[in-house]
Automatic annotation (TrEMBL), chains A, B, C:
Gene: LOC115553679
Stored SUPFAM superfamilies: NAD(P)-binding Rossmann-fold domains (SSF51735)
The organism of origin for this protein: Gadus morhua
Annotated localization: Endosome membrane
Gene3D superfamilies: NAD(P)-binding Rossmann-like Domain
Reactions it catalyzes: 2 Cu(+) + NADP(+) + H(+) = 2 Cu(2+) + NADPH; 2 Fe(2+) + NADP(+) + H(+) = 2 Fe(3+) + NADPH
Protein name: Metalloreductase STEAP4-like
Amino acid sequence: MSLRPLGMEPPPERELLCIFGTGDLGRSLGQRLLQTGYRVVYGSRRPHSCGPLPPGAQVMSHTEAAQLAAVVIVCVHREHYDFMEEVAPQLKGKVLVDVSNNSKKGLYPESNAEFLQSLIPAASVVKAFNTVSAWSLQNGPSDAHRQVFLCGDKAEAKQAVRELATRLGLSVLDRGSLSAAREVEDFPLQLFPEWRLPLCIATGLTAFFFFYLLIRDVIYAYVEQDKDISFRIMVSLANKVFPIVSLIMLSLCYLPGVMAAILQLYRGTKYRRFPDWLDHWMLCRKQLGLLALGFAFLHVLYTLLIPIRYYVRYKVTAHTVISKQTAVFDTTSAWRTDSYFSVGILGFALYVLLGITSLPSVSNALSWREFSFVQSKLGHLTLLLCTLHTYLYGWNKFLRPSTYKWCTPPGYMLCLVVPSVVLVLKLLMVLPCVDRSLGRIRQGWERTGPEGEGTKPLMA
Amino acid sequence: MSLRPLGMEPPPERELLCIFGTGDLGRSLGQRLLQTGYRVVYGSRRPHSCGPLPPGAQVMSHTEAAQLAAVVIVCVHREHYDFMEEVAPQLKGKVLVDVSNNSKKGLYPESNAEFLQSLIPAASVVKAFNTVSAWSLQNGPSDAHRQVFLCGDKAEAKQAVRELATRLGLSVLDRGSLSAAREVEDFPLQLFPEWRLPLCIATGLTAFFFFYLLIRDVIYAYVEQDKDISFRIMVSLANKVFPIVSLIMLSLCYLPGVMAAILQLYRGTKYRRFPDWLDHWMLCRKQLGLLALGFAFLHVLYTLLIPIRYYVRYKVTAHTVISKQTAVFDTTSAWRTDSYFSVGILGFALYVLLGITSLPSVSNALSWREFSFVQSKLGHLTLLLCTLHTYLYGWNKFLRPSTYKWCTPPGYMLCLVVPSVVLVLKLLMVLPCVDRSLGRIRQGWERTGPEGEGTKPLMA
Amino acid sequence: MSLRPLGMEPPPERELLCIFGTGDLGRSLGQRLLQTGYRVVYGSRRPHSCGPLPPGAQVMSHTEAAQLAAVVIVCVHREHYDFMEEVAPQLKGKVLVDVSNNSKKGLYPESNAEFLQSLIPAASVVKAFNTVSAWSLQNGPSDAHRQVFLCGDKAEAKQAVRELATRLGLSVLDRGSLSAAREVEDFPLQLFPEWRLPLCIATGLTAFFFFYLLIRDVIYAYVEQDKDISFRIMVSLANKVFPIVSLIMLSLCYLPGVMAAILQLYRGTKYRRFPDWLDHWMLCRKQLGLLALGFAFLHVLYTLLIPIRYYVRYKVTAHTVISKQTAVFDTTSAWRTDSYFSVGILGFALYVLLGITSLPSVSNALSWREFSFVQSKLGHLTLLLCTLHTYLYGWNKFLRPSTYKWCTPPGYMLCLVVPSVVLVLKLLMVLPCVDRSLGRIRQGWERTGPEGEGTKPLMA
């Protein structure tokens, strides 16, 4: 590193900042500040044995360091905030930047930043930088976490920190007063909150269909035919469960949109809020869709694997030997199975396309109309192809009594219910008369305005 | 949401903004502005029945609201701009931010922003925020559309809106005077303009090769051998069309680059513009390549599916029974087919790599040299491997007369023409003498400068 | 383009900028500046024959142009800097922006910007914009390279250029004084520096295992059994080498983390630096993992291809005919092979998930806890599944003497060493007692502090 961030004679206009704490974050932040042209002084418990600091930085006691700068960045864990009270006189009127995070949610009654403010009431505490890691500061923001959330009660203090962050090449988002600090502090601790519900649904569906098919296939064969086909659990059964869950989850992506449209048509306005469960459901459509794609991906791999399985190789050999002359080529079967595969592949390709367009960088590059075209038009086409794929799989088995072992329908029939309903409802939605009404409602038209205009009911 | 964006006593320095309209966008924008520390007042047609507004915002009539703020954000559809004329006196000298979009292109003779300016000539209209959706404002900019295009005639008005947008965590791009508003307004309405040409080419090629191969395979078999193999349309035929279209489109990616180089060598300068069609072609290379990757992906899936097809399983069984002793293992065939598969897989893997590097977030992380290395060197290697894969497929069938049914060459021969030409030309380009000339031209050297230096022709 | 960036009467506050050079970058930069509302004047060697310039820009001689503006952007190759000395008097006290790049590293003893500063000592040289291409300036920053590195010795000069860049919608990162210019200039020339080591490791491992398996399989069969199975090189051998290299490289991803933890436990502090080789290794884990994913992808394709190979089809046919009655279905084999495949597929799916989360745009959208959950927890699960997959492949062959041809173990046994070690060590790390000690060390606790607290050794 040939960086010489400070010249021989530092020009007087370079601002001096104080950093409390010489841990990873303190050092990385100091190094970046020095590179950006600030002067940096560290405040430390033991100024003489605090390990290697970035070249160009000074280190002294907390009290001395605090006196020199107008902005003090506190890179210390909350457990060690007690020393702050001694420094309080020197911190009067200064901007205190709290960068701390907790190791768990709900450890303390109040947020770290509010606690710090209560310790030093005479300073202006600003919460910032807690979403930025030492690692990303060191390695430059080329592909690092750049978003900084800011909150605080004093506008000038926030402005000072905002400028600081902007100079560091970070992107600042103001989250309001210091009472928002709790939320800001919880942000780095969150673990896929928006994935929870979709993951629960996926797990529930997988478990249900696994046991359902286990009973219908393996246990039925054992009880009724006294055959042990338990080895089929690993691949055959999995390859039945995965496509079923995938198709149901894909249709669950598009069901709330249809329900919202029906609700808007029924109410005749778009200005009334949806019920909470529907709002919540609509917000996790992307996650539902991506999980569905994951299951579809597994289904494709399991299907392509079929011919190299020991069981299948054995069956081919055995079958060949036994049924020498019996095989007669059936063109209808060839058409049906080939269509079945072809529709499935095209559906999967569209599925992958939908997945790619929901990558943040891709969806950000799309205009709103492009995004809705892909997610709505192509999405429904994908659902149509995948549903068709499943119907072609069933073909004429729907009416054959032997299909219904122990009076239960096979898994693929169960999984066709939701997608079929979604597709039929969507078809109704795109009928010209319904589509027109919906379009007007979505542009702000209301059936029963306060002046009584437009009171004609739209649907029976 | 425990956000309390406004403290008990709002400090006087918080700026007051006025929003006309209480629709989705108006509410979301207001909420974000309140969070960021602004004060917000809504202007509404019916201030007493305008539904739920963000906590902390006031609502009053348009006239009253307009008087209070220096900046008025107009979140109203253009159809309802008529009320603006009544408010005109209060808007004199103020900054009017037009955020509107139309539902279609070309609905009105002039842009909404220019129309608004003509209604209120005494205000400074700035077009902004029309690419930002209510949804992304509500959910924070973590993966939202952040780009704001700005245009307007008054520099100070633009500066005020620029600051506003920057504070909201958005990224601002100035597009010039208000006459650019039409372009800015059309942006959210565009539907993959740069994908049009590549999609047309792909559709055209697919249709041509589909009918060509339908005639050569299915109809030929029906007419000459009286066999119905129409079921092969779904998989076998598709799996011939897709790789052909993929290879041609991949080579069409690299053809314009070679043509541009030849043109530069011929002209002896890089400072003359390419013909428009070549410019247009070069700008859609990425889209051509990604479509080609899509077709290659389908080809891989269709190929891997082969052994589980009913037709193939039948053939294996039948063939086994008939040709008991005749099968003799041919090492050359084993070498050829394995090389054919291996080269194809490696080509596809590179193809996928090229696709991944054209994701916006990946290509942005690459330096210019890295990007051109991947797209040029690896791209040509991919083309070479895929072409080789096709040659290995043909092998010794090129000279066999029975290949040419009804005197037409098979599809894979047709599709080899363009890639072979591109590869041969590219090979000529990397010859040391040509490469050196080209390098000098691209560094700004001109064969026939005004002073007459460097007049030696570079190519015959 | 209906852009009319300059109105009829340009308001006086529009700043005038001077650009030296009318090449691609000069023109594109000028066009963008004009759109953003600046006035632009070009300085050119031949003001009357310099080709098409953006509408609205003026062109004059270097001397005349330099006099008009306070900021001069030098879009000229370093080789032509000689003319600058003539213009030196006009450049006194002005901000000179050096945007140049070199075609190779180490061409000149000093950076271009420092050279320019030495030519015109009375001006303030700022290095900037060299990472931005003409292409991305023309096409807007929607998915372009936006990052601008800035360095220079004068703070006010840097501030002026920073504002300029921000207005252009670019994101600025200050890299310190002008002595950092060399690094900034080398940035666009770098060619995957962080991929070098992982690529070397991958190449080395591939070469070693290729020759090792060539000897054990092909040459052994030729020498001992006098059979020519050289055709197996293309697919069978490749499909042995790829998974081996993939598994080893995946475990090399997780080995340094385990080693670092052991080192921290041994030292009892996190404040001592790791050895350089370990630091270097830890920084290229992502690249190691992505290469491993690439090899795994190839392994999957090669495996799924097996049944359509000529050799396999031949073997199936031949085997069928010969072993008519001998085949007995073995349930254990069915369980084993199906588990082997199933575990492999699940491992690969997790592998792909890891790959997707390391896309810059995805990893930026994750909180720190989410990222470490995916990369650490899911990463080790992937390693576990892939190792299990390999053990299931080996099954009972570990103890069979015939496996050890020429006294060498098969490739898959060799490749199990590193992952097994990593997994065992990781298992030790998550034991409650070790985990607790490690957690305390990582929160800043030190075993032998200066005051002597916490001196209990943690591990024997």
